[in-house]
Each structure stands twice: as structure tokens, then as C-alpha cells.
Amino acid sequence: xxxxxxxxxxxxxxxxxxxxxxxxxxxxxxxxxxxxxxxxxxxxxxxxxxxxxxxxxxxxxxxxxxxxxxxxxxxxxxxxxxxxxxxxxxxxxxxxxxxxxxxxxxxxx
Length: 109
Ligand SMILES: [Zn+2]
Prior knowledge:
Blueprint: H1 2-11, H2 14-25, E1 28-34, E2 40-46, E3 54-56, E4 63-65, H3 83-89, H4 95-108
Antiparallel strand pairs: 1-2, 3-4
């Protein structure tokens, strides 16, 4: 029985490398989402990915629907605020958060 476990052990580690190579070559599909503020979002998914029914709008943060005729409404009890707006409000006492926000903006480029 010791031989069986040795064979299994030799295969560990080959998975992650193979997966990243396949990810680069994977064909993409573009899915459009519509938010209730009139924004249209186009998101790229792998062809074999599970495409979610809704997506957070990157412009205003509202949940966007795949169905333009059946828009999702914003949650009323929790007004959306962008991270940057939140940081600007409190920048007097949280300088560290401002630095973080600037780093995030650079990443979005
Ligand atoms: Zn939006």
C-alpha cells in the first residue's frame, strides 16, 4: 500500500503551472450588464466561466443586470459611496487612507 501513496505524491505540484498556461490561451466572452443609472458595463469572462446574473457597476457601484429590461434597484438602506469619496471626507484624520486611495487609482490607470 505504500507504493500507492508514492505515486499520488509525485503528481502534486503539476497542477498550478498547467492552469496558468491554459488561462492565457483561453477564449473570452464579453457580457454586458446594465445598471439603473444608465451605465453599460462590458465584462470579459472565460468561455467556460460561470457568468453571474448581476455585476457591480464600476462607475456608480449599483448592481447591474444582464437584462436591460429588468434593471436592479439600489439598496435603499445603504447609500453607495466610492472608496475615494469616503477617503476625501475623512482625509484630515486618516492620511494613510489617502495614500492607499492614490495607489489604487494608479493601478486603475
Ligand atoms: Zn452605474
